[in-house]
Amino acid sequence: MSKSKVALVAALTAVVATASLVVTAVGSAKQHDVFKAAWIYVGPHNDGGWSQAHDEGRLAVVKALGSKVETTYKENVPEGPQVSQVIDSLVKDGNKIIFATSFGYQDAVLAAAKKYPTVDFEMATGYKTATNMADYYGAGEDAIYLSGMAAGAATKSGVVGYVVPFAIPEVIRHTNAFALGVQATHPGATVKIVWTNSWFSPATEKKAAQSLKAAGADVIGQNVDSPSAGQYSESAGLPWVGYDSDAQKFAPKQWLTGAVYNWGVYYIPRVKAAMAGTWKTGSYYGSLSDGFTKLAPFGPLVSSATKAAIATKLAALKAGTFDEFAGPLYDQAGKLRVPAGKKLSLGDLMAIDWLVKGVQGSPKG
Amino acid sequence: MIRVERRLEQPRWLSLAVPIGSLVVAFVAMTIVLLVTGHDPFTTFRRLFDSAFLGSAELNATFVSATPLLFTGLCAAVAFRMQLFNIGGEGQLYVGAIFAAAAALLVSGVPTVVAIPVMIAMGALGGALFALIPAVLRAFFKTNEIIVSLMLNYVAALVLNYLIFDSLSYWRDTSSPEAKVFPQGKTLPDAASWPLSHIGGLELPFGLLLGLVIAGVVWVLYSRTRFGFEVQVIGDSPRAASYAGMRTRRKILAVMALSGAIAGIGGASQDGDVRHLLDARGLSAAGYGYAGIVVAALARYNPFAVALVAFLLGGIQNAGYTLQGADFPSGLVGVMQGLILFCALGGELLIRHRIRFERRRPAESVA
Amino acid sequence: MPAVSLHGITKRFPGVVANDGVEFEAAEGEVHALLGENGAGKSTLSNILTGLYRPDEGTVELYGERVEFDSPRDALDAGICMVHQHFRLVPPFTVAENVILGDHRGEGGRFLVNPRHIERRVAELGERYRIAVDPRARVWQLSLGEQQRVEILKALYREAKILILDEPTAVLTPQEAESLFVTLRAMADEGRTVIFISHKLHEVTAVADRVTVLRGGKTVATVGTADATPQSLASLMVGREVDVATRVPREMTIGDAVLELEGVGATGDRGAEALHDVSLTVRSGEIVAVAGVAGNGQRELAETITGMRPTTTGRIVVGGKALKGGDSREAIHAGIAHVPEDRLHTGVAPSLSIASNTVLKSYRGTHIARGPMLRLGAIKERALHLISSYDVRTSGPNVPARQLSGGNLQKVVLGREFSGEPRVLIAASPTRGLDVSAIETVHRYIREGATGGMGIILISEDLDEILALADRIVVMYEGRIVGELDAETATKDAMGLLMAGVTEPVA
Fold first, then answer.
1. Which residue of chain B comes nearest to A201, CA vs CA?
2. What integer pLDDT is reported at residue B97 of this predicted model?
3. What pLDDT is recorded for position A4?
4. Which CATH number among 3.40.50.1820, 1.10.1040.10, 3.30.160.100, 3.40.50.300 corresponds to the domain C4-238?
5. B53 vs A: CB within 8 A
6. Is domain A35-138+263-286 annotated with CATH 3.40.50.2300?
7. C70–B contact, CB cutoff 8 A
8. C-alpha–C-alpha distance, residues A226 and A249, integer Å
9. Which helix (DSSP H) or strand (DSSP E) does residue B224 occupy?
10. Which residue in the set B23, B180, B347 is minimally distant from A351, CB to CB?
């Protein structure tokens, strides 16, 4: 049997090779003259969260530039050796600007930037740059603070659950902003967190939400990418605060709001610049003011009083007259970390490793 | 009326005709799927081959994808030969990667010729030790090794996560700017980078060559040695083995250790060839161990066939990333990969069985 | 009009014509025996009749109507049931559940079944045909004889008109066999047709009305049993005159004790005591037969002596040296050869080649292995030698063992076991399922082994075989040796009583 198996596989290989030679010899499609742009997603393009928000940005580019640009994407690309290969094939297909939308792609993108100097690379949530590699992200924390206010107004028990992915500065920053928002509308409330150790893991996220409910939370919020905690909340009758994209359709009754990213705000000018040959590297940090981050439309449970309170804070954040990370800020142990009159700088926020008072859970994951 | 009968003899021409036939069937089926979903089959097929097996860059990427499958495929094949169903290649690969990364970090400063053998040895040791858990339970307490080894995969994944995300372990990088933004393993010293062999435009990872050597060793071991003879007898009939005075328990321990060691070297190869750090998230997302079971089954546990199947599957997997795009959903890619595998397995069935088409006669009245 | 009639049945397999124009007829109300050596085409013929195979040529008629079966279900629907040698029962299910299993037309075809109804019906059938089995018992709890009854009940429940039994007495005591014959007779008297496949000539003459003998895929003859003797049937089967397991005088030189069991005890697979205080001495040149109904500790005895099963009490001494026991390698090195009861799954590794099986025990030796490596050339040489000196009919040493016929397989096992020049041979049911000429060959080898100075234990349920071969006979009952008889003077009746556990002389 084993001999015939070897023969089988050998024959299979031979056939594949021959067939492909024939196919290649015959066909060779002509390259089009349109400008090509590509995106790489870590999850499905319609994940109802992070990758979907990026894909909406891509569609905004298509809408703005029409037939002058041809876009594509690669989805479910794991952070591993496949990334370089995916980039290779995108470059081979003639893409001139490539947006990599997961932090774990950073080193592969940096290597590709060196390998393909004529292609512009954009690295979301990264911090390494090169002459043809830029970084981009934004102050999600400001919008998250506002979404926390909605959660705080909705909690009766004073316990809000928050599903969080990894214990990294970005997530700790977001968690702090959320907790401060909750406490702004519900003084003394606690925020319980559960780590999932994954950006996108619907099953784990649902379990996390269940365990938070069991721990007394009557409102669920999240910093993870899938809407499954929301679907659970809808069925369990818990108000829910989403993240990344407008996910009201997953929980039409219980949806409060969510901090969302409007990546198109960044993508449209960058693709335009690349087309015009004026693209330059840089580190973009979007904000509420330029429309990069915003609050998704409210659900039916949010009262007009809450809406008004949130609108006031939004205006103040935009005007620069309010900063959620201004002192006095205490950590979980009650120690004063930021005295009154001071505030956390952007550098502090990028390296933050402590959680504010009222958050229950470890900042170490 | 269609009947499937076991073939009593397997004509030689079949072993050539059936693979060709099954590929033709696969392509016809794919053509239909593509036409129905509004894609140009011709362009699609061209991209499929281009991106897997043609061109040195594509072949190089296929080699990288095939390497871990070669190790986990051999891991499964070695154990399955003795009817020992080690499903734990996944976890054994993790543990091998953990051990090899520790070794590489510990011996930093030594030259590559020292670092690589140490990594291989430690990877093998880690995988073997981890595989010995189900082996001991099976040999001495008759515990089902399928369940134990499967469950240990989850344990290994949690340990891997713990080392990088939830603790300040020896493997975790706590100083570099990358690690401040996102937890990751310490970058291994340069000496721990496994070399690439260049043949023409092709770059063969060291792990791939090592895996091929191991495949050869396994073949010799299983077809030319007393050890292999005992494994064959135990796998075929445990009672005959006991009757012949074979030490079945020892063989269970040895085969599981060998199987785990091969997966563990696969983990070391991931550290040395590809990732250059203990990549907790990358390894657990890849699922090499489970894919290895498919590889072994398709190869019917023959070590050389494992190498070929790993290469084919690696190529098909890579082609998938190239094929998909805004106008080509990844689900459709999955359908095509599934069709190829389905037809390959169907062809295998046809070699061993034959299908007879018969007109169903009306059953004449039976008293 | 015959109930079953097969005309010109031909079935070819690659390289073999299994049935070559077979003619067969069985009447209503008849017990009809189908006799033939292994490979004569009996299985193929019954597989055609039960719809498993389709004939390449020829016709099948039931009660004068031509039928063509596309599947076993068609045959079942036509009222043909088969009781296989290896039962097709589901051990965790009850008797009643097994009876309706696969019966898609009656009770078993319903979504909800009424177990009480089935149990009552099964109990009724059991009473009527004197094969009563508790309908609620689980099959794994039953003895092999009882399991066979379940198979027959299955056929009766489905109102089978034609019942085929393949070697039904292989698992039965003589008394159980007798009662089976009564049942079969009763079924035939009701107008059913019973087709009975057997090797045991005296059974055939005892129970059947007529016998059809197959040889080499062809029908040799159909004769009435009134006109037949075991000798005449045997010569029809093999095509020449043979002696049917008759005693052959043997030059005996009984030497020293080579195997001594002293108060040996052992437990069975389920943990219960299987051997109790067994003491037995076998001397060089002697054949000691162990008689008994299957399941009275004979298998455990063979396994304990050969090291496959540990002893719980007592000791085993070979050539004056005590074994520590429970280690088949130790037993092999001590010179104990073993022809196991289950020759296909214990005696050989069935998927491995004849060559591999030739060295199943000697692969560690220096002739076969050099360090860790095997000398494939030496293995092949040894296999070719065995094939030629034991006349194994096969196309070569690379053929998987399972493709050999029972007789040829047993030759491979015997040849291998004798090659180690053993002191002791444990032969467990060495001729079960073999045809007459193969039995003859196996018996010859066993006699030659004894003449050559081996001490032999022959474990068998075939009393003819025991009487033909043994010098001494011990009888086992419930794990003990309950009696010893001199083979010259022993009778089947005397053995039968001991086998049934009756140790007191009957008044």
1. B285
2. 97
3. 53
4. 3.40.50.300
5. yes
6. yes
7. yes
8. 13
9. helix B206-224
10. B180
Query: How many residues make up chain C in this entry?
Result: 507
Q: Which amino acid is at B324?
A: Q
C-beta of residue A112 within 8 angstroms of C-beta of residue A120: no
- Residue C39, token pair as written in the block: 């490979």
Which sequence spans correspond to the domains of chain C?
4-238, 245-335+422-507, 349-421
CA distance A44 to chain B (A): 8
Of chain B, the end-to-end C-alpha distance in Å amounts to: 23
pLDDT in tens, A11-67: 555 555 555 444 444 444 444 578 999 999 988 888 888 899 999 999 999 999 988
Q: Enumerate residue ranges in chain A where pLDDT < 50.
A: 1-2, 20-31
Contact B19 A20 (CB under 8 A): no
Which tens digit of pLDDT belongs to each residue from A276-309?
999 999 999 999 999 999 999 999 999 999 999 9
- Alpha-carbon gap: B183 to the closest alpha carbon of chain C (Å): 48
Name the nearest CA neighbour of C41 among C194, C218, C237: C218
C140-198 pLDDT, tens digit each: 878 778 888 899 998 888 889 999 998 888 767 777 888 899 999 999 999 999 999 88
Residues in B 9-38 with any Cβ partner in C closer than 8 A = 9
Higher pLDDT, B94 or C494: B94
Place of tokens 């990026």: A54
Domain boundaries along the sequence of chain B: 1-30+333-361, 70-298
B263 CB near a chain A CB, below 8 Å? no
Against chain B, the chains showing at least 3 CB pairs within 8 Å are: A, C
pLDDT at C15: 57
Backbone phi, then psi, for C405, in 5-degree steps?
Answer: -70, 165
Same fold, A35-138+263-286 and A140-260+292-360: yes
Residues in chain B: 367
Average pLDDT, integer, range C1-13: 89
Report, at the CATH architecture level, how domain A140-260+292-360 is classified: 3-Layer(aba) Sandwich (3.40)
Which residues of chain B make contact with A9, given a CB cutoff of 8 A? 19, 298-299, 305, 308-309, 312
What residues form DSSP beta bridges with C66?
C61
User: Is B279 near chain A, with CB under 8 Å?
Assistant: yes
3-class secondary structure, B120: helix
* E strands, C268-368, in order: 273-283, 287-291, 313-318, 321-322, 336-339
Query: What is the structure's pLDDT at A16?
Result: 55
CA distance A334 to A340: 15
Chain A residues touching residue B16 (CB < 8 angstroms): 7, 11
Residue of A nearest to B59 (CA): A85
| Alpha carbon A8 to chain centroid, angstroms | 46
Domains C4-238 and C245-335+422-507 share a fold: yes
Cross-strand bridge partners of residue A190? A159
Whole-number Å distance between alpha carbons of B212 and B191 = 23
Q: How far is B348 from chain C (nearest CA, A)?
A: 19
Beta strands A35-40 and A69-74: pairing type?
parallel
| Cα C40 to Cα B130: distance, rounded to the nearest angstrom | 54
Among A140, A152, A361, A356, CA closest to A241:
A152
Residues of B in contact with C65 (CB under 8 A): 364-367
Question: What is the architecture of the domain spanning C245-335+422-507?
Answer: 3-Layer(aba) Sandwich (3.40)
Beta pairing, strands A190-195 & A359-360: parallel
Instruction: Give C127-156 as a DSSP string.
Output: HHTT----TTSBGGGS-HHHHHHHHHHHHH
Q: For residue C263, what pLDDT band results from cuts at 50, 70 and 90?
A: very high
What does the domain layout of chain A look like in residue ranges?
35-138+263-286, 140-260+292-360
Residues in chain B, pLDDT under 70 = 1-12, 14-15, 351-352, 356-367
